[in-house]
Amino acid sequence: MKLKVLWPGKIRNDAVRQLQEFYLNRINQLAQCEIVVTREAKGLLEKHAGRIKEIEARGLEKHIEDDYIICLFDKGKKMNSPEFSRFLKKAGESPARTVTFVAGGFLGLPERILNRADFLLSLSSMTFSHELIRIMLLEQIYRSLSIVNGRQYAK
Known about the structure:
The chain is α/β, with parallel strands linked by helices. Helix 1 links the parallel strand 1 and strand 2. The chain has 5 helices and 5 strands, in the order E-H-E-H-E-H-E-H-E-H.
């Protein structure tokens, strides 16, 4: 299984960045995974939301190929960890297609990116910072791969 995670902008918080590296290293023991940091819209006020999303969308689109696209979206489908594990296993069964997770910036993803998705995934009904959601996603990917590979994972 080949995995790719796309998101705009670097993680600025050192503790969060360390967690990102921790989970990425763990994931790469079970499956090939890369994180692609794309262009972040900087210096624009939130009132320019459309422009911000457009700038970030163009950066994301450069890395979306004929992949199986999973977009993080607050109105997407919610799953528990065993369900997500089965889903990820099935999504990754085609050796020719990369499973690509796409996370937006603080304003989320524009419609045209969401429309390209094969699946819309919600990690929670609650609102979290876009940096924390990245860690939650990586943790769930690692947990799912552990389950698929029959490894114990602390509850």
